[in-house]
Design brief:
alpha+beta; Glutaredoxin; 8 helices; 15 strands; globular
């Protein structure tokens, strides 16, 4: 079977949000908001969500590929998400900024115009440069090799404020350090939870139907496990794709199991969400959230996490493709004869 790149699968690209210490854009007016508009070719949804990791979030309506709205924000970095992909931009009060992109080549086609557009165009190009450099990363050691070219790329943008350049290089340092930790974590998973080893097990997890379920009960079929929680936004974004996957392979030699790692106090939220979202498959509640032995044995420190176990109870992939990776996962299942 053709295997995935085990070092990079499951590694979310780490785009930390850091605000600048001084102004980096000068061509803005006295208004205390941002005007954000744009045109999207072949939009993925009818909305665009602008957010940051400090809690700001606003949904913009997209009509016939176009949108326009005002954003009352603090100056700094923000991301926008179109339902499938996301990108980072810089916003400052007083800006009137326009975005154009084509979802067929999302990152490659992002262009900003208007006041303050230079910073956001730089960030879009930086994301492409990171993506290009990451293709050559095979270990935590080779990750170190992207530092110099990223520094050089930042220095090439001579229109950037000196303090902003300094903060960007510091962010590169944090980015590399965090990514190295993620790679090392993935390497540990591949060493200790390799294909063909007996899977860690769980016993008598609460089933949404009122019964108890153990991994042993599911032997005889492949088991695709989704580890999630009601508070996890990326987990919830996978739900429609997981439903589609379950429907496609209904009646086949595979069981779909979702294990919630919600804390005990959120049990009612779990029951409510399973019912309201009409979640299919086998819905289970872990016995001790992230401290459950099954969760710790699989070294799960972030979610969602997907696992594939064979009919004999042995690991096929401890860090399996997400349901949203439709083509990859269907090919993987085909090679297994599912």
């Amino acid at each position: 079977m053709k295997k995935k790149n085990v070092l990079l699968i499951g590694l979310g690209i780490i785009f930390a949000m850091f605000s600048c210490k001084k102004d980096v854009v000068s061509s803005t007016s006295e208004k205390d908001f941002v005007t954000f508009s744009g045109k999207i070719t072949k939009p993925n949804s009818d909305s665009l969500v602008v957010y940051n990791y400090e809690g700001y979030k606003k949904k913009l309506k997209v009509t016939n590929g176009e949108f326009k709205d005002t954003l009352h924000i603090k100056d700094g970095k923000y991301s926008f998400y179109d339902g499938v992909e996301a990108s980072t931009m810089y916003l400052k009060k007083g800006m009137d900024i326009q975005l154009t992109l084509d979802t067929n080549q999302f990152d490659e086609t992002i262009v900003y115009e208007g006041s303050g557009a230079d910073i956001s165009n730089y960030l879009a190009k930086l994301a492409l440069r990171k993506e290009e450099l990451l293709k050559n990363v095979t270990s935590s050691e080779t990750m170190e090799g992207i530092r110099k070219p990223l520094y050089e790329f930042i220095d090439q943008n001579t229109n950037l404020d000196k303090e902003f350049v300094k903060s960007e290089k510091e962010e590169v340092d944090r980015y590399i350090k965090n990514y190295q930790k993620q790679i090392e974590h993935q390497e540990a998973i591949q060493r200790e939870l390799a294909e063909g080893t007996v899977s860690p097990s769980f016993t008598n997890y609460e089933n949404i139907d009122g019964s108890k379920t153990s991994l042993e009960d599911l032997k005889g079929k492949y088991v695709y496990i989704d580890v999630w929680a009601t508070w996890c936004a990326p987990c919830k974004k996978e739900i429609p794709f997981l439903k589609e996957l379950e429907e496609k392979y209904h009646g086949k030699n595979i069981e779909f199991v979702s294990i919630s790692v919600d804390e005990a106090g959120s049990h009612d939220k779990w029951v409510k969400m399973v019912k309201e979202k009409e979640l299919n498959g086998i819905q289970l509640y872990a016995d001790n959230a992230f401290d459950s032995e099954f969760i710790k044995s699989y070294k799960i420190n972030s979610i969602p996490r997907f696992i594939l176990i064979d009919p004999e109870g042995k690991i096929v992939e401890a860090n399996m493709y997400r349901p949203s990776n439709k083509k990859e996962i269907e090919k993987f299942f085909e090679e297994l004869g599912i």
